[in-house]
Amino acid sequence: MKFRLFAAVLGLCLSVELLGAAAMAQAPNKNAAPPALPAAPSVTGPSKLAFINFQQAISDTHEGAKLVGQLKAKYEPKQAQFAQENAQIQALQKQLSDGASTMSADAKRQLSQKIQDQQRNLQQSAQDAQSDYQQDVEGVLQQVGTKLMPIIDSYARQHGYTLVVDSGLRWPQSPVVYAEQGTDITGVVVRLYDQEHPATGSGH
User: Fold this and answer.
1) How is the chain split into domains, by residue range?
2) DSSP structure class, residue 184
3) What is the pTM of this model?
4) Cα 163 from chain centroid (whole Å)
5) pLDDT tens per residue, range 83-94
6) Fewer CB atoms near the end CB (10 Å): N or C, the chain?
7) Contact, 190 vs 53, CB < 8 A?
8) Residues with Cβ within 8 Å of residue 177, at least 6 apart in sequence
9) Long-range contacts, stretch 137-142, CB < 8 angstroms, 24+ apart
């Protein structure tokens, strides 16, 4: 599923939120007179960073896995239908190719038009299905992601993290080039989510 863009946006929002809070806590007083000489930087200790694969976290939760399974079951019949219609078009194309030397010009024209009509209808149906699917995917992201964000925020604050970065994308799409394995909080956040939001019923 195409979670990447949405996940990156949510991850960026979380990073900005936590980083902004840390920056405000350390912001200088704007009304204070500027020092005559630049002050030596104070040593407050290294920033504590954490990484989370937001897309993986959503799909790994019990609720997310259930919703993804429901989407798969919903759209599998459409996929089968499109495959069947495509096979029919290929059969007509073969018929046109095989009969190129024996069919009349009018018959070839009619068959060619039929192929074009079916191709156009299939393309439109596939585009409509893709649009519906994307809307359903965004619904899953909203349903699980909006409940996942407070858990990430709470965990990060409790454990002193100043920045949480979405590691779901890879360089160059993501600024993350290297992340120490011990700083990944995806698994623990998923466990906390499942404890707080157990998947029951239809998952809605």
Assistant:
1) 4-22+47-196
2) B
3) 0.65
4) 20
5) 999 999 999 999
6) C
7) no
8) 171
9) 137/1, 137/2, 137/3, 137/71, 138/6, 140/1, 140/58, 140/64, 140/67, 140/68, 140/71, 141/3, 141/6, 141/7, 141/58
